[in-house]
């Protein structure tokens, strides 16, 4: 028997808001978080725009001494987790005056998705190495740059002593982390798991690398808010973003026993690999479509029971057309009735972070009864012929919502949430 898993807390650090409420209001308003890059000098770059997190002050959530030892992606994760744990009412003051997880810390785990690690830390260290030699490299380079350090730091900050994992499946990392966390709670290995995705890779190295792949939008650097336009015939690539989306998962039994407020049920997860190409999805749609089918089956819901699907929707020609095929493959005739949108039109492509706060977009859709829009959808691609909630929010009842993420290497992860009760 699989234990029922519920969500009791959410936290967001994103290009469109540094709290769940700010994030929700931006989704409803169709607000773009994309602008000119401020984190490095873009002279000589074709791409000069990104979805940066704005007005982020780590000390609001992290002690300054600890924060100085964390890369930006780790700071995002700890800050979003602080919000989620507060909402879930899972923190208490320990004897040393610090906040610690309530209950048995050995039954509280972490699974975070991260695709790239601390790129700004790597960049700084390479400059020091090449300019001044190895003895001038920052001594904390390695523990700050490696991808598992977000989970490691989070465990130390709040005293979580259960498993602390990092999932690395490129842009599917956030969704796959959620799925692994779901299994930890279902199996009884953990009563509580902090999970989601985090990413901070708006650096010269990352922008330059993606630019050389011809993957990024470069035609609308003068109008950055118009650059991310999933499913639009005039799209020319994705916009890199950053941020973290974190959920608190609990078994229903554990949440009820402590009187927690349950937001939604985390009902299902599905994954697959395309076994096709290192950067492009299988154009047939079978790979991602299979992950969608697996997720629906795991959740025990029929395709026609789903009202909303948050698409990977990167604003690239190959992704958007292929994902449309995936949705049709999994949902059949219901695909035409399904509300589908890409919140990347507002946030940009935040790699692992997107998997976290795109799941939160689904939860908000269920809780508050709205369908986030796909902004900048002005000239729909004829091959993308579903209802993508163009440009303006729509309202309605959402009982079941799903979110899918696809990663380089052919990784596909899909999660399903249901209204609780």
TrEMBL record:
Occurrences of domain Ketosynthase family 3 (KS3) (ranges): 2-419
Q: Which InterPro entries match?
A: 3-oxoacyl-ACP_synth-2, Beta-ketoacyl_synthase, Ketoacyl_synth_C, Ketoacyl_synth_N, PKS_Beta-ketoAc_synthase_dom, Thiolase-like
Annotated keywords: Acyltransferase, Fatty acid biosynthesis, Fatty acid metabolism, Lipid biosynthesis, Lipid metabolism, Transferase
Instruction: Report the GO terms under cellular component.
Output: cytosol
Domain of life of the organism encoding this protein: Bacteria
Q: In which pathway does it act?
A: Lipid metabolism; fatty acid biosynthesis
Q: Which GO terms describe its biological process?
A: fatty acid elongation
The record's annotation in PROSITE patterns points to: KS3_2 (PS52004)
Write down the Gene3D superfamilies for this protein, in alphabetical order. 3.40.47.10
Q: Which residues are catalytic?
A: 171 (for beta-ketoacyl synthase activity)
Enzyme Commission (EC) number: 2.3.1.179
Q: Which CDD domains match?
A: KAS_I_II
The EC class name is: transferase
- Entry keyword Lipid metabolism: yes
Gene Ontology MF annotations:
3-oxoacyl-[acyl-carrier-protein] synthase activity
Q: What reaction does this enzyme carry out catalytically?
A: (9Z)-hexadecenoyl-[ACP] + malonyl-[ACP] + H(+) = 3-oxo-(11Z)-octadecenoyl-[ACP] + holo-[ACP] + CO2; a fatty acyl-[ACP] + malonyl-[ACP] + H(+) = a 3-oxoacyl-[ACP] + holo-[ACP] + CO2
Which SUPFAM superfamilies does the UniProt entry name for this protein? Thiolase-like
Indicate whether Ion transport appears among the record's keywords.
no
* Family indicated by similarity: Belongs to the thiolase-like superfamily. Beta-ketoacyl-ACP synthases family.
* Physiological role: Involved in the type II fatty acid elongation cycle. Catalyzes the elongation of a wide range of acyl-ACP by the addition of two carbons from malonyl-ACP to an acyl acceptor. Can efficiently catalyze the conversion of palmitoleoyl-ACP (cis-hexadec-9-enoyl-ACP) to cis-vaccenoyl-ACP (cis-octadec-11-enoyl-ACP), an essential step in the thermal regulation of fatty acid composition.
What name has this protein been given in UniProt? 3-oxoacyl-[acyl-carrier-protein] synthase 2
Organism of origin is Treponema primitia (strain ATCC BAA-887 / DSM 12427 / ZAS-2)
